[in-house]
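Good morning C.,

I know you're traveling, so I'll keep this short. The sequence:
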Amino acid sequence: MIKAVSGAVALDAMGGDHAPAATVQGAVDAVRQFGLQVLLVGREAALRRQLSHVGGVPHGLHLVDAPDVVAMDDAPTAPIRGKRNSSMAEAARLVRDGKACAFVTAGNSGAAMVAAKLIIGTIEGVERPALAAPVPGIERQTLVLDVGANVDCKPHHLEQFAVMGHFYSQAVFGVASPRIGLLSIGEEEGKGDRLTVEAYSLLSGAGLNFIGNVEGRDVYTGTVDVVVCDGFVGNVVLKVSEGLGEMIYGLLRSEGRRPATSAIGLLLAKGALAALRRKSDYAEYGGAPLLGVRGACLVGHGRSSPKAIKNAIRFAHSYATRGVVSHIEHKIGELRARQGAERV
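The tokens, ready to paste straight into the viewer:
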């Protein structure tokens, strides 16, 4: 039985398209570069074989054996039903039992949400945890949620997403009064499907800085700080943003191979291009925090590289140790109490 390791991040080492090679390398890099403690959870024999290729087990890396693996095509309920001894379920239990401060996985996002919700537990008053991802904009990042945890939502779920996004933006991005926008097909009230129309009414009375409906272009212009939508739409927004960033960077690189005049101009803009790539590269932030869970949980991209895993571990540790979860829990408790008083 693994003992509690102060400030350790539990990593699902078997989760992701390139696991365990990418997860092991990312964990080793996080330990060596940032001095973090990492609990590497997975099939121990496979992990030791992979560690033998990267110089062995460094100080600060601890192995936790878990015989089962949640595959990308498994049902979301796999961690609590057929695969309770999976690396994903065990990593979540380590956080629940206070043996780790955060849980990171690049595996099945639906299963990660179920594991976090049912093993770690949710903040009182939150029905659906939501994945929140920062999307780069002209002036600063825009937080979009949900980006994949909840495909089918009800209006009050979007209201909860807005509340969690509001407090997360305050705690992590330092925005005093985050502007909350509801993603729709037009700015006018009444635009959109039934979900957005009903959610608009709830958000208008939620006591937040709700600026109304916003459109897709507003995600990037800096006119809104938090964009709320269901997980289906949010995941499309996130993947389009990632693809757009890769396309723009690739297009500019190809232009650099053209006549000398173009190449010289691009050479002069080399620093700006590097900054563009960093802003649009998901590997720079590692993953999306799952808000609404009573513990720090970060879900990475399925094709996460070692760099993405390393940065996910660093961000998860910072997220956990800065007390963001308790801050959100406290603020949601205050909001619920105020709403209850107003109904009396």
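Safe travels,
E.
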